[in-house]
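Final report, Chapter 2: Outcomes

The project's central promise was a pipeline that accepts a single protein chain and returns its three-dimensional structure in a standardized token representation, suitable for archiving and comparison. That pipeline is now operational. To close this chapter, we reproduce one record exactly as it appears in the project archive, with the input sequence first and the structure output second.
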Amino acid sequence: MADSAELFSQLVAFLLFVSFLQFVGGLVLAQIFGRGVSRVDKWVLVWLFYDATVHFTFEGPFVYFSLVGTVAKSDSLLTEVWKEYGKADSRWLHSDPTIVSLEILTVVLDGLLCLVAVYAICKDKHYRHFVQITLCVCELYGGWMTFCPEWLTGNPSLDTSNALYLWIYLVFFNGLWVVVPGLLMLQSWGELRDLHRGQKTAKRK
């Protein structure tokens, strides 16, 4: 097993910095486009902008290079993030059909749903929570189908032998797309509940 100095290389530091910049970009865009929305919804916009950025800039190239070849054999700089992540989950290196299928859905459907949800929040559209719930279900389904088949077969592709791969690559970055969609579904449930109660109250008057 590689020591911590070898694991936390300049490439790892750079990729984590890029991920941080994507989050900062979400903050900036939320401030620009989220004028007039509530504080909670402004944080929702931060996530949606960050989510869309990850889907299009990280996962989009993964889909392309997986369809024309494999990440492992590519010389493109755009595949470096996946070569690094592939040390924790080797399926991403060799165009695993389940992973590629899920990522096509993620890039095309989830990425577009993020943008539609941003528009719906900023313009206060009636379909906002329908889109938000649909997006969250897609994200949670993607996470489940990414890892459940692997768990059922004894995790042959996962390397959990060191903290970086286990806690940062596998748990933290994948966990974000479980925790945040879960919270957004709770928000939508609360908003729809309050709307329903308000309509029932209005009918009684």
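Archive annotation: Confidence is low (pLDDT under 50) at residues 1-5.
This record, like all others produced under the grant, will remain available to the consortium after the project formally closes.
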